[in-house]
Every structure is written in C-alpha cells, then in structure tokens.
Amino acid sequence: MNINKLLSGISDCVCGKKHTCTIDYVEIGEGALNILPEICRDYKHILLVADCNTYKAAGEAAYAHLTDKINKKLILGDKGELLIPDEKALDTIRSSVSDETDLILGVGSGVINDLCKEVSFENNLPYYIIATAPSMDGYASVGSALILGGMKITMNARPPKAIIADSEVIRNAPMDMIRAGYGDIIGKFSCLSDWKLAALLRNEYFCPTVYELTLNTAKEVRSLANKISERDGEAISALMEALVAVGIAMAYVGNSRPASGCEHHLSHYFEITGILNSEDYFAHGIDVGFSAVKCAQIREKMLSIAPVKRDFDKEKWLSEIKRIYSTSADGVIALQEQLGWYEEDDSDTVAAKWNEICEILKEVPTASEFISMLSEVGLNYSDFEELYGKKKVDDAILYAKDLKDRYTILWLYYTYFREEH
Asked: What is the pLDDT of residue 80?
C-alpha cells in the first residue's frame, strides 16, 4: 500500500469531488521515531500527552529525541483509572496548553488520539500522534470520537500533521489491541454495505473510488489474519498502514461513512451503556468485529422474509430510551426528534427498490464467514454472547441506531422487520 500516494489526494475523482488530505508525514516501520527531530525542527514549546502505559511504550523514547523542545509533559491516568475521552480528560489537556504551546504531541492510540485531536483543533494548533498500537482507524480521520454528556459524539476536527508508528512498538502492543485493529478493519465489509444502502434509500453522497479503496484494504488485512495473530512484524505494519489508509478515506469524504456503520453503532451502544451502568465491555475494534457478526445475522434474516412496516409507538420508544440510556436519554431523544426519521414513511421507496436492497445485503460476508475471520486472530464469538447476553444484544439491535444520525440496516430492520421483546 502506498500511503504517500494517498496523502497526495485525488484531484479528478469519478464522484466529482476533489479529495484532499492535510497529513504531512506518515512514518510506519522500524526506527520510525527517529524522524521526530527532523519533523519537529520548527517547534520549540511542545506539549507531550500520554498515559502511564503509552509513555513507557514510546513516550520515553519520544522525550529523549525532543527533550529540549518539550515544554510540558502530561501523563493521564497515572492513578490507574480508566481513561475516558470525556469532559474531564479534555479539561485536563486544555489546562496544559499555554500561550507558548506550538505543537501537541500525542503518544497512544484511540483515546489519546481523540483527545489531542480535539484540543488541538480548539486551539488551532498542529498535532502529531505517535501510535502505540494498531488498534483503530481513527488516527488519520477528521473526527474525534468523544463521550460528552454521556453520549458518543464524533466532533469535527482535523487529522494530525504526522502519524508515526515504530513497528517494534506496535508489534508488542497488547494482543487485544492488535485484535481490535483487525476487528475494526473487518467491520468495513459491513459498513460499506450500509453506505451503499444509504445512497440508495436516502440519496446520500457515495464515492465508488473511496468505497473500493476501503474494500480492498479490508480484503488485504483479511488475508494477513494468521500472520497478524503471530505478531509478524510486516503483517502488523500492514495492519497499521490499513488503519491509516481507512482514516485517509474518511478524510477524503469529510466524515466517517466509509468506515462506520451498523457494526460501529452496536459497538458504541455497548461502550456507552457499559460506562453508564459500570458494566464490562470489549475494546472498540473487538466489539466492531463481533457486532459485524450480529449485523450479518440481521441481513440474513431480512433476506429471508418480506418487509412489512411496523407501527411506531412513540410512548413505548420513549420509555425504552429512558430505561436504556438513563442520564443520557435526553440527548438521544433530542437527536432523534431533530432528525424526524420516525415520522417519515419510506415504504413506497423500500417496496420499489427491494430487489436492489437485497443485492446490496448479499454482498456482505455471512455471519459464519465473519466468525471464521475473527477466530483466525483468536476472537471467539461465544465470548461476545456470554459477556452481553441476549437481552442486551436485542436492545442494541433496536436502539443503538438512536445514538447517531446515520442511516444503516438497523433503521431498515426496526421499521420493517423488528420483533418486540
């Protein structure tokens, strides 16, 4: 994969848009941290942000390269508490930004990346990210995934100016983080179907070039599953490149549509309800991979029966949203009232385009194929069923969609196929 070519963008895409990327440097490989003195030569007051684990993994080496340029070193979660990308964490970083700060240097993966991305955007500062695990596809994306007011919200921001990943560091990341990156990429087979579906039923913008880029990236990672599970250095670096490539694909279209669909909505649901109820949940990418199985099962069910519009009982919906989301329910309700999708009737469109819908649903791997993909890196679907249980998963299928303003098969299922429980 030629990451540098992707950084150049696409000036004459068949979709009619000019795709650009504002990232200046991507360095993935052995000794990647050695690039730091060169790319930081114009900065004098750097804020380094890490947590206690990521600082040991790569922060110490980064500090050694840039000691005279680092104005402040901020280590989050040093008391061992779970680091959540929420208001508290944001405020901690904000308070560490001074008038002199000219670069934010994040050392970590998902949470550190999202926090630094948001604070740098708020302060109109550049930021670099040193990846410590190939665990998610948000490194190069435009958005920062945060938990604000108890809701999972993707804030508009900017990609980093540089992404650096030393192959030895990411190869030695915790295995679950490597599995999470793999699961996040495998989920693209699911979300790309949702993108096509939304283009067909909601006239959403769709780019075939970005679609093919993401699909081919997922296929490549799928072929490396066995080597990834063995921590093969080249395979882990290829996984990291794939995660960055998908982030660039998101930057191309200006949102996360090429990389996030129903499987991500289920993942967000388990994370949010886990935080609200102090319950365990899997790492994001692992949940994405497991949720892709569940979404494949939904597609298979939808292909086996004809759509029949279900009546919308608003009072019951409100009651269920309040039960599930508790203190975050008002935000969920407000979002859906703003969208107004529950009041819309697209039954004529669905009936007229049902054959096309079925063709889109058939393009996705089956549930058993997803289970096989995950098992090759040591992820067992039975763990998902055991942790969450049938009731929680059934609730997610019906109400995870309400966390977002994005059309997926979860809306189609709820409107035409749901079973009350």
From this structure: 62
Q: What average pLDDT does this structure show over 130-150? A: 89
Q: What are the residues whose beta carbons fall under 8 Å from the beta carbon of 110, sequence distance 6 or more? A: 85, 135, 136, 138, 145, 284
Each as own residue / partner, the long-range contacts of residues 365-371 (CB below 8 Å, 24 or more positions apart, any chain) are 365/189, 365/296, 366/296, 366/300, 367/293, 367/294, 367/296, 367/297, 367/300, 369/296, 370/186, 370/189, 370/289, 370/292, 370/293, 370/296, 371/293
> Percent of the chain scored above 90 by pLDDT?
89
Q: Which fold has domain 3-172?
A: Rossmann fold (3.40.50)
Tell me what pLDDT residue 300 has.
97
What are 249's two structure tokens?
């694909």
Cα–Cα separations (whole angstroms), residue 150 to 137, 144, 379: 23, 15, 29
- In the predicted model, is pLDDT for residue 58 greater than 80? yes
Tell me the CB-side half-sphere exposure of residue 420, using CA atoms within 13 A. Answer: 7
- For 157, the 3-state DSSP assignment is coil
Among 226, 120, 130, which Cα is nearest to 173's?
130
Type of residue numbered 400: A
Provide the 8-state DSSP code for 43.
Answer: -
Q: In the chain, what are the domain boundaries?
A: 3-172, 181-204+257-416
- Tell me the three state secondary structure of residue 249: helix
Identify the CA nearest to 249 among candidates 5, 11, 17, 6: 6
pTM exceeds 0.85 for this model: yes
Give the number of residues written for the chain: 421
Instruction: Report the pLDDT value the prediction gives residue 289, as an integer from 0 to 100.
Output: 98
CB 292, CB 409: distance < 8 Å = no
pLDDT for residue 119 is more than 80: yes
In whole angstroms, give the CA distance from residue 176 to residue 115.
22
Q: Where are the alpha helices (DSSP H) in 203-283?
A: 208-223, 225-229, 233-253, 262-277
Which pLDDT belongs to residue 79? 65
By the 10 Å C-beta count (0-12 exposed, 13-18 middle, 19+ buried), 211 is classed as buried
Q: Is the pLDDT of residue 83 over 90?
A: no
